[in-house]
């Protein structure tokens, strides 16, 4: 899939390629949802997490509750 938006016809083609039965009236809705998901993921890819440790480094229950407000 290119960087251009997914068209209803392309959505139908991709669905058929994967073996999914997609009714004609759903092509536009599926394309719209796929384009929205793509836009959200592209924003997430631009985030700079810097020195943020991976989730595996977090240990639940070990946080300290001594912060001043």
Protein architecture, described:
The model has no long low-confidence stretch (mean pLDDT 86). This protein has 2 helices and no strands. The protein is elongated. The protein is an all-alpha fold and 69 residues long. The chain has helices at residues 8-17, 27-46.
Sequence-ordered SSE layout with sheet pairings:
Elements: H1 8-17, H2 27-46
Helix pairs in contact: 1-2
Strand content: under 5%
Low-confidence runs: none
Quick check: average pLDDT?
86
- What oligomeric state do the depicted chains represent? single chain
Integer-rounded radius of gyration? 20 Å
How helical, in percent, are the residues?
Answer: 40-55%
Main sheet characteristics: none
Order of helices and strands: HH
Note the overall shape.
Answer: elongated
What is the number of helices?
A: 2
Task: State the separation between the terminal residues, measured CA to CA.
Answer: 49 Å
Structural class by sheet pairing and helices: mainly alpha
List how many beta strands DSSP finds.
0
List keywords for this structure.
single chain; 69 residues; mainly alpha; 2 helices; elongated
Describe, in short, the structure shown:
The chain has 69 residues and is mainly alpha-helical.
